[in-house]
Here is the input.
Amino acid sequence: MNKFIETINILDGVPQRLFYHTQRMNHTIHCFYPNAKSINLEGILRPQITHGQQKCRIIYSNQIEEITCSTYIKKEIKSLQIIHNNTIDYAFKWTDRQMLNDLLKLKGACDEVIIIKQGYVTDTSYTNIAFYDGEKWYTSDTPLLAGTCRASLIDEGVLSVKKIRETDIWKYKKVSLINAMMNLEEREMPITSIKKNENADSRLIL
Here is the structure.
């Protein structure tokens, strides 16, 4: 049976962007289980605390199977390694992340990877990406996974979507990693923190 995961940010006991999580979960369910009932997340999350930031993980298939909440601990990310993979597909948030974990092993001395597919920027191994040109923030129109934070920022007009090739990266000033647990500018770095891959052996995985 196909299993998926949804990660929800809970701040001071309040689930964030619940509309977007519900929307994505039901889209996934109906793609794989057309006759399954829709899920309504309102009222079913039970945060363990009412202060601070918690990470809520929902495992589901055609229905919710498990919900766990824990204190969120941020990863330290200061550098990003460009890698290439022309066949990766992660349009749904599977519990099986082996393909992403394998790509993360190519990060070398850096903390995280930026995955390039067919010449275009996609995501890191666990976040969407935004780029700042000095006036506006942009995100690639070719993400591996359409993130909930990304979707809400686009709807709010904070993020603009455009094609971003690998060669375009160096036109920007800053890069920001975004996902359900990290908002725009919470984890941002200068564009110089992105490293080109000089290792030909790990540059391209078909």
Notes: Confidence is low (pLDDT under 50) at residues 199-206. The radius of gyration is 17 Å.
